[in-house]
Amino acid sequence: MPPVITAFERSPDRGRGLARDMRVRWMLEEIGQPYEVRPLSFEAMKQPTHLARNPFGQIPTYEDGALTLFESGAIVLHLAERHGRLLPTDPEARARTIAWMFAALNTVEPAVFDHSLTQVLERDRPWFDERIQVLEARIRTRLAQLSDHLGEADWLEGDFSVGDLLMASVLLRLKATALLDERTNLRPYLTRAERRPAFQRAFDAQKAAFDAADT
Ligand code: GTB
Question: Please, what are the domains in the chain?
Fold first, then answer.
């Protein structure tokens, strides 16, 4: 039995690869592991069957035999360890790569996600313009720091790694904004990641799932 992941039945992003199942699909494609997808409605996510997979009632989850996991970062890390892929074997490089995974999810993603959420949920509020400016300033700080670290390198820690997979997944949310162009090395970094065949396969699969549900 191939592993099973959960994803939105109809992703609110209409298949632009922004829901967090995308990063799990991408990792599964990187390691060449076939998988199945269990699409869930918002209602089904809050039912006991899914709460047993993820106590927070969210997607994505991952089921492989007796193992059930939630949290996209934990799933990606598990796959990297289990398949020995996209994670250096040298203990120090490995630790630094895992630090980049946490940085993507804990240090960069909150600012980026709050910005997206505010655009969607608070556009009509009187404080919108001021709040967006604050959120953009937070993002600018993080992007400048990320850009400084990356410098002329292709990837964050040696070869392409799970740190890059998660960081690029986060930056994807800024793809349509000019924020990504304020430093010259970040859009090329994202484009390099998006050009990976595994990314393309994952993107096409989640888009096809949305299109099928939308017809
Ligand atoms: N920390 C968890 C992880 O990394 O796995 C967070 C998981 C999470 O936020 N899941 C979201 C979810 O299940 C989907 S990805 N939400 C439903 C709920 O909480 O009831 C977040 C997301 C939502 C929508 C878009 N979009 O429309 O573009 C993009 C991303």
Answer: 4-85+198-214 (3.40.30.10), 91-196 (1.20.1050.10)
